[in-house]
Design brief:
heterodimer, A: mainly alpha, MetI-like fold, B: alpha+beta, Rossmann fold, OB fold (Dihydrolipoamide Acetyltransferase, E2P), 2 domains, 9 helices, 19 strands, elongated, ATP hydrolysis activity (chain B), Transp-assoc_OB_typ1 (chain B), ATP binding (chain B)
Chain lengths: 256, 355
């Protein structure tokens, strides 16, 4: 084994693990229970879980049909559409937030109309948080589900048709169960991404405790006032992330 | 009910390839589409199922046009009274054997409990009561084939389609499954079309063979007539015969400019001559006497063939001969060697090439 590879490899690993170790070492373990149950922390955690779950639901509702169209329907410009879908993946989230403001803001392209017609205001609301998270997280779901659909043998759908199943029944009774592992993996990734969303959320929805202040925002705010609190909140996010990683590994990534 | 439940002319254009196969099947009849790979058999099956639209022609089942491009008549796959057994079965992996079989009845509006009862009955008929709750991946190849058959039959289709139904099975399972399949196909009241490249499957399972080559029907008839009177090299090879086409004039058929074969049958005009490789004798020198066809040939290849040795010979006509290993050793058969080929007139079978 050449040292020229082993040494940078070891340094790389250290670079990735050390900060996490720091988080664990500096954690105020003795006061952890009280810190965790502080009203501010609990509120942020609850809001984060709620918005991430709603954002994932929104992504499933819109993203699965989108993935199906990309995987199963031949149409001109399909490659372009696929590229557009992946843009939020590489776009800095803060830019996404600005873009959302320009469309759904009070004076935005759709926001003004929504406000005057339905009295609906999106920016700086909990709904706004859900939208920002869904905007950033949806590509994860679409890519995972489209990949699963492409990998699934479409002849099962033909077999279903020969047995009298309509297109819709085939989709719900054959296609979806076939891609269930990919769908679940996509949904979990989507949820994790939504949970950690920061840039688009703070830009589009602001930072109001109890309304739009999710965990990552709370961590950032706490960092300026109460370091220990920031560490505790970070620990919670770390535990959730590691939990997801373990779940994905055991359940889907190895069998896929 | 008419004497033909299925009446079709399957025309599908696929670039340079054109399929044009007329097909009529009576109720209860089993027709095998037999042909080499790439002959268009599977395309024909997919067209019948509505998985591939026709370019021209028609598919009429029970007097209803399922597909007729000329009039725009089209019934989508899910509304056709068909059952399909796919080559690799395509059992839904997320459903038990029972739910796979119940899937069709459920889609045909049967309530869940009744659909399961139907499925249970069908699984019983194919001898798989004990495997009802198993997932497809827990079934053996032969069991999966039977579940696929039960699934296709559970909707009581007017037209049953089977794509290479035994191809995915190992030799031993194949033998048992073939007998089993024959029993179920005989019991099926509707029309059955099966596609295969295996002449044994076709002969064992079908009432009538339709031989397809290059998208066209080259021969049609029941098993005995097709095997006795092959009309193309493909069929002759399938049934293991030497086959030649030539001009007959009484007892002689001119099969090449240099060779006229003497045959036992008497006929005139365009004719086929067929004989078994075992009827061909090889001699080191020109044989004397006896009413034999003899000509000089060159050994092109020697292979083991069962207990015998099959010798391929070039000459005025190419011919396959089966000789015993002892005879092969005595003749010192090696490629390039000259031998005399002899076939008795009484061992040949000649029949008209037309009609």
């Amino acid at each position: 084994m050449p040292a020229a590879l082993l040494i940078p490899a070891g340094l790389g690993l250290l670079f990735l693990v050390l900060p996490l170790a720091g988080l664990l070492i500096r954690a105020p373990w003795t006061t952890l229970p009280e810190r965790l149950t502080e009203p501010g922390a609990l509120t942020a955690l609850r809001l984060s879980v709620q918005t991430a779950t709603l954002a994932t639901a929104l992504c499933l509702l819109l993203g699965v049909p989108l993935a199906w169209v990309l995987a199963r329907v031949e149409f001109p410009g399909r490659r372009l559409v696929r590229a557009l879908v992946t843009v939020p993946l590489v776009l800095p989230p803060v830019v996404g937030g600005v873009a959302l403001l320009l469309v759904f803001g009070r004076r935005g392209l759709l926001g003004g109309w929504l406000d005057s017609t339905f009295g609906v205001t999106l920016p700086f609301t909990t709904t706004g948080v859900v939208l920002a998270e869904a905007f950033v997280a949806m590509p994860f779901l679409v890519i995972a589900v489209e990949g699963a659909l492409r990998a699934a043998d479409h002849r099962f759908e033909e077999a279903a048709a020969t047995l009298g199943a309509s297109r819709w029944t085939t989709f719900t009774h054959v296609t979806l169960p076939l891609v269930a592992p990919g769908l679940a993996a996509g949904a979990v990734l989507c949820w994790a991404r939504a949970l950690g969303e920061f840039g688009a959320t703070i830009t589009f929805a602001g930072n109001y405790p109890g309304r739009t202040q999710t965990m990552p925002l709370a961590v950032y705010l706490a960092l300026e006032t109460d370091l220990e609190s920031a560490i505790v909140l970070s620990l919670v996010l770390l535990v959730v992330s590691v939990g997801i990683l373990v779940a994905l590994r055991d359940r889907w990534m190895t069998t896929a | 009910m008419s004497d033909r439940l299925l009446d079709a002319r399957l025309v599908v254009d696929r670039g340079v390839f054109r399929l044009d196969v007329p097909l009529r099947v009576a109720p209860g009849e089993v027709v095998a589409l037999l042909g080499p790979n790439g002959a268009g058999k599977t395309t024909a099956l997919r067209a019948l199922a509505g998985l591939h639209p026709l370019t021209d022609g028609h598919v009429t089942l029970d007097d209803v046009d399922l597909d007729r491009p000329a009039t725009g008549g089209w019934v989508p796959t899910e509304h056709r009274s068909i059952g399909v057994v796919f080559q690799d079965y395509l059992l839904f992996p997320h459903l038990s054997a029972l739910d796979n079989v119940a899937f069709g009845p459920r889609r045909h509006g049967v309530e869940r409990r009744a659909a399961r009862a139907t499925a249970r009955e069908w699984l019983g008929r194919v001898g798989l009561d004990a495997q009802a709750q198993r997932r497809p991946r827990q079934l053996s190849g032969g069991q999966a084939q039977r579940v696929a058959l039960a699934r296709a039959l559970a909707v009581a289709p007017s037209l049953l389609l089977l794509d290479e139904p035994l191809a995915a099975l190992d030799a031993r399972t194949r033998l048992d499954t073939r007998a089993e399949l024959h029993r179920h196909l005989s019991a099926h009241a509707g029309a059955t079309v099966l596609v295969t490249h295996d002449p044994l499957d076709a002969l064992a399972l079908a009432d009538r063979l339709v031989i397809v080559e290059g998208g066209r029907v080259v021969q049609e008839g029941d098993g005995p007539s097709v095997t006795a009177r092959p009309r193309t090299d493909y069929v002759a090879r399938l049934v293991g015969l030497n086959l030649y086409r030539g001009r007959a004039d009484g007892h002689g058929v001119r099969v090449s400019p240099e060779l006229t074969l003497t045959v036992a049958d008497r006929l005139d005009g365009e004719a086929f001559v067929a004989f078994r490789p075992a009827a061909v004798a090889l001699h080191p020198a020109r044989p004397e006497g006896s009413p034999r066809n003899t000509w000089a040939g060159t050994v092109a290849g020697v292979q083991r063939h069962g207990d015998n040795v099959r010798v391929q010979l070039d000459g005025p006509i190419g011919v396959a001969a089966d000789v015993t290993p002892a005879a092969a050793a005595q003749l010192r058969l090696i490629p390039g060697q000259q031998v005399w080929v002899a076939v008795k007139a009484t061992e040949t079978h000649a029949y008209p090439a037309t009609g």
